[in-house]
Amino acid sequence: xxxxxxYKQYFSAECVFNGVARHGALVWLNAxxxxxxxRYEVGVTxxxxxxxxDFAISYDACVTKELFNAKGRxxxxxxxxxxxxxxxxxxxLASSLNAVIYWDKPLNEAQYG
Length: 113
What we know:
It contains 2 helices and 6 strands. By secondary structure, it is of the alpha+beta class. It has one domain. A hairpin with a 2-residue loop joins β2 (about 20-35) and β3 (about 35-45). The protein starts with a strand and ends with a strand. The model has no long low-confidence stretch (mean pLDDT about 95).
């Protein structure tokens, strides 16, 4: 199976999960390709980010949503379509945890694969 990180970026955020305040979020779009199938997924994980150097990811406050899973191949057109949905889907995922992602406060530059 080939796992491709199409997009990932860290943002300031607010979330309390399992009694732990979290002030950062990692948002990503991945594609997985195997045996002629392609699968796209958006995910968000919230982590403490108690100081500027704290990027220790917590996997208990993690939510994902599958956008597409069918026969086919990865393409720039599909990448662009699902990339355009990342913020909307990530906001939906965040709200399921009563969390907020501050899109105007990135913690790093976007990384594209």
